[in-house]
Design goal:
It is a single chain. By secondary structure, the protein is of the alpha/beta class. It is built from six helices and 17 strands. The strands form five sheets. Strands 2-1-3-6-7 form a five-stranded parallel β-sheet, sandwiched between helices. Strands 12-11-10-14-13 form a five-stranded antiparallel β-sheet. A hairpin with a 2-residue loop joins strand 15 and strand 16. The two termini are 27 Å apart.
Length: 241
């Protein structure tokens, strides 16, 4: 999921983005969650919503979008910022705050979808390392070496090429930290790296174990069957095309 804060004092523009995000969620596996603000101050006063991306109108009635971007950059130097503008003369200034992309105010839905696809690819590339803390030590694993995740009570178990690891945390938060095109949920407490799937027999997935000898198996619950079939087909089409 990509969380976006949109700041634009034009109510019609905000309605347009809400529609674009809703349509994107209907078409794509990666989902958008967004909060909308009509003033600089309302965005700065936000305490509960923590965005991954900002969409900022450059010309705001109660402030300059470029100055707002500068304030955001002091708190988070790496966060992507997409500027909304119809004035090309602002673009050189926008480069100074490292704009990720631009959107014209002419309400081009395809342009918005293109930017969202770019952001989805960007965050997928960022999620190649999975990090967690266990017994006071920070562990970082290459996602390509992770076979699967499972859980036991409140304890998450990571099974990887180089062993098994345990840590405490919400299992439901794991998928947001992974490259989603390579991992799939099979049960409420089981996520698999599709690269390690050996065979599928009806509702049973056979996958390589950590020792590389023999196969382990897990049944797909009814809740995840359709979504897994679609995701695995897309994965195979991408890998074998």
């Amino acid at each position: 999921m990509i969380k976006i804060s949109v700041c634009d004092d034009d109510e019609g523009q905000l309605t347009f983005f809400k529609q674009c995000f809703m349509e994107y969620n209907e078409k794509h596996e990666e989902k958008i969650e967004a909060n909308f603000y009509q003033s600089v101050q309302s965005l700065l006063n936000e305490k509960k919503f923590s965005p991954d991306v900002y969409f900022l109108d450059i010309e705001l009635q109660d402030g300059n979008g470029l100055k707002l971007a500068g304030r955001i950059r002091t708190r988070n130097p790496q966060i992507p910022i997409v500027f909304i503008t119809s004035h090309e003369e602002f673009m050189p200034e926008a480069f100074q705050v490292h704009a990720y992309q631009y959107l014209n105010e002419k309400k081009n839905a395809q342009a918005v979808e293109n930017v969202l696809n770019q952001l989805a690819d960007y965050f997928s590339e960022q999620n190649q390392i999975f990090s967690f803390q266990t017994y006071g030590e920070m562990i970082s694993l290459d996602c390509r070496d992770i076979i699967c995740f499972t859980s036991e009570k409140r304890k998450n178990i990571v099974i990887a090429e180089n062993g098994e690891f345990e840590y405490y945390g919400k299992f439901s938060a794991i998928m947001d930290k992974l490259p989603r095109q390579n991992f799939a949920e099979l049960r409420n407490n089981f996520i698999i790296n599709m690269a390690y799937i050996h065979t599928i027999d009806k509702v049973t997935v056979y996958y390589e174990n950590v020792h590389g000898i023999g196969l382990n198996s897990v049944d797909i619950t009814r809740k995840y069957r359709n979504s897994f079939e679609e995701k695995y087909e897309a994965y195979r089409n991408r890998i074998y095309r």
